[in-house]
Amino acid sequence: MRSTNWLAAPVALVLALTGCATVPTSGPVDYHTPHAPNVNSGVHVDPLPPANGASQLLVVEGFLHAMGVYQPSYGVARQYLTSTASESWHPESGVEVYTESDQLVESDQGVALSYVKVGSVDAVGIYLSDNTNKRYIFELAKDSAGQWRIANPPAGLMVSRYMFTTNYTAVNLHFLNAAGDVLVPDPRFFASGDQTPAAVVRAQLDGPSAWLGPVVQKVATADVGVDGVTIQADGVVDVRLAAAAGALSLEQRKALLAELAYTMTGLSEVTAAQVSAGGQPWKSDFGTLQVGPQTFASLSPTNMSAPRVLFTVSDEKLKRLRDPSQWDDLVDVETSIEKPEQIAVRSDLGEVAAVTGSGTQLQTAPIGSGKPKVLRVGSALLRPDYARNGELWSLAASGPDSLRVYRDAAAQKVDGSALPNGTVVAAKLSQDGARIAVALRHGNRTEVGLAVVARTQGAIRLTGWHAIDLTMNAGSAGRAIDVGWVSQTALAVLQVGTAGQTSVIQVSQDGAAATDIGPNNSGSLEQLAVMPQRTSVALDSGGGAYRFDGEFNWTLSLTTVDAMTYSG
Questions:
Q1: How far apart are CA 214 and CA 424, in angstroms?
Q2: Which residues are bridge partners to 148 per DSSP?
Q3: How far apart are CA 383 and CA 394, in angstroms?
């Protein structure tokens, strides 16, 4: 029996800077890049066909490497298979991502790979995290030339985590919400390379994921073809749709144009997009051919036009940071709410909501003069949260069924039954209002998960709950005590480790990446204030507020702070 770490095996390889295409691939693409593609900056290794007389072990090693590097129809990888296996293999069906430190073992049964499956990507690019111990035995047979070939390849691709992070990139597709007033991101993974832009366009046309589907619109574009995609030297991507797209209504064309403007500029080499159908260019309402996020700023998932001001409770008074660049300059904010404990501020800065009375009351009041209103009386009320549309969300520790939503001080009908039972620790709406992150405690453990927010005829329903894996790159998960959104699709999670130390984990909403970002100089953090395009802040039990200046670089910036939040 022999074994080897297949990544370190002395297989003859050719180093080359190259890219990968998405899974699946089809359609014409013209691509002109003014500089190196942004998707990955790593060194790629071109796969080689099997060497004459290669052992079973080397054949499997070569196949594993060849699966991690795109070729049209994975032609090189197929050379490692028997003719029958090659005909039945479907690499476009998806990707299984596994830990890269595992060893191959050769035995009488074949060549076995014992590994941890950390995730998978389906045929449309959706990542699903996993943490499963698995073992796959590659069975080999000799062909007519006496060469070892694999007879039982996996259903799709098997790619090591290193190759996945090197050769694939995350791109947020964007779809209008049901009300048509904000775009919602839909994370996907594509193999990187010249084919990526066209693959992204096709995925956009195919529509949202099943998870996001209940809360977004779907433009009827599944049958619309792509004639070509070209990235020009100035960074403008030219998207040429087939003539069938010309049959879309004016409103549908506007929606698709806005979606593509946000989606395509998610590729960092793209600065703007222009779209045509059957050779006829589409224009924005401003008459422009080239569009980008600024063209449709009001639809921004991160609400880019709203002010984002850091508010605090200090000495039982509401205060705000006068200038984001002057962290020692807090000014008093007039409000009629006395002794606020946990706070939220509406995005227009016109109203504050606060939990008072040791967690027993939820009050709102105008910022400035005006009497407070008591909206809710209970126990263990948690920090409130304003949605983009002005809704006020309130949860209590007792469980998801404690959720209350208020619009103009009137309670809305809410169904949170899709969330698992447990003690609610913290919750935060995404800036687009279509997703909510919730930290729940079950006995001695906690889980952080997401649900989508469906709004229909004055009713609100949470659906599609799924837990997020916090351990992929961050080691073992601790006990979550707060959560917030740091970008369209990434969360900051404040957690307590087994030794009582606190740290912040930054994790993508699909669990594909999770990183411990510190800090390492405060062991008693208890609250986060995070917001897309704003500096993250962590508050400790002694009233010290630490701003994030880089991984494990948190600077003490405020003192005597009891609570804090960014406005809406």
A1: 24
A2: 142
A3: 7
Length of the chain: 568
Q: Give backbone dihedrals phi and psi of 233, rounded to 5 degrees, phi first.
A: -60, -25
β-pair type (272-277, 236-241)? parallel
44 HSE (CA, 13 A, CB side): 26
Which tens digits make up the pLDDT trace of 443-473? Answer: 989 999 999 999 988 799 999 999 998 876 5
**pTM, full prediction:** 0.89
Rg (Cα) of the chain, in Å, rounded?
Answer: 26
At what angle are helices 196-206 and 250-264 packed, to 10 degrees?
A: 140
**Partners of residue 434 on adjacent β-strands:** none
Domains in the chain, CATH or no CATH each: 2-167 (no CATH), 169-299 (no CATH), 310-566 (2.120.10.80)
**Burial environment of residue 436 by CB neighbours within 10 A (0 to 12, 13 to 18, 19 or more):** buried
According to DSSP, the β-strands at 404-407 and 392-394 are antiparallel
Lowest pLDDT segment from 39-48, 66-75, 216-225, 419-428: 39-48
* Start-to-end CA span in the chain (Å): 62
Any bridge partners for residue 455, and if so which? 460
9 forms beta bridges with none
How far apart, in whole angstroms, are the C-alpha atoms of residue 72 and residue 24?
10
Q: Which residues pair with 424 in a beta bridge?
A: 440
Amino acid at 26: S
Residues 149-178, mean pLDDT to the nearest whole number: 95
Q: Enumerate long-range contacts of 321-329, CB under 8 Å, 24 or more apart.
A: 324/534, 324/535, 327/547, 327/557, 327/558, 328/557, 328/558
Distance between CA atoms of 556 and 111, rounded to whole angstroms?
54
Q: What is the distance between the alpha carbons of residues 130 and 283, in angstroms, rounded to a whole number? A: 43
Residue 235 phi, psi dihedral angles, 5° rounding: 90, 0
Q: Which residue in 29, 46, 174, 167 sits closest to 97, CA to CA?
A: 167
The DSSP string of 174-227 is EEEBTTSSSEEEEEEEEE-STTHHHHHHHHHHH---TTTGGGB---S-TT--EE
- Which residue do the tokens 């049964």 mark? 109
